[in-house]
Amino acid sequence: MNGNDLIKLETKKMNSEEYFIHLTNEFPDLKNRLIEWESDMIFFKMETFADYTIDQIKSGNKQKLNKCLEFQESKIDFIDSLLLNAMTVSYCEALLLVKVDNKWIS
């Protein structure tokens, strides 16, 4: 292995297929909800994970909520630009719009 091979290994980003495999391994109860979407519909899949996270907020399940947020945080530096866009648009924006008991989450 030469220096160029090391650079290629370091710059390889996780694609959506790899990301959603990690996601369903970490959250097996999401698998059935995610398979509804075609493999290339990553924005809808990411929104499904956002809905799952919102369910944890509304139910007050802090342990699962932290697990969701920690999962996203652990992946953010390793995902490709398409996944980063989906995370920003479909996941983060959905969380910003959450209301519980008619109050915005802050």
Question: How are the secondary structure elements laid out?
Answer:
Layout: H1 3-11, H2 16-26, H3 31-34, H4 42-59, H5 62-75, H6 81-96, E1 99-100, E2 103-104
Helix pairs in contact: 4-5, 4-6
How would you portray this structure in words?
The protein starts with a helix and ends with a strand. Strands 1-2 form a two-stranded antiparallel sheet. It has helices at residues 3-11, 16-26, 31-34, 42-59, 62-75, 81-96, and strands at 99-100, 103-104. Helix content is 68%, strand content 4%. The protein has one domain (14-104). A hairpin with a 2-residue loop joins β1 (99-100) and β2. It is mainly α and 106 residues long.
Short description:
With 106 residues, the chain is mostly helical. It has helices spanning 3-11, 16-26, 31-34, 42-59, 62-75, 81-96, and strands spanning 99-100, 103-104. Helix content is 68%, strand content 4%.
Continuous helix count: 6
How do the strands of the widest beta sheet line up side by side? 1-2
Number of strands: 2
Helix/strand/pairing category: mainly alpha
**Compute the gyration radius: what is it?**
15 Å
Strand content: under 5%
Task: Identify the overall geometry.
Answer: globular
- Averaged pLDDT, please? 87
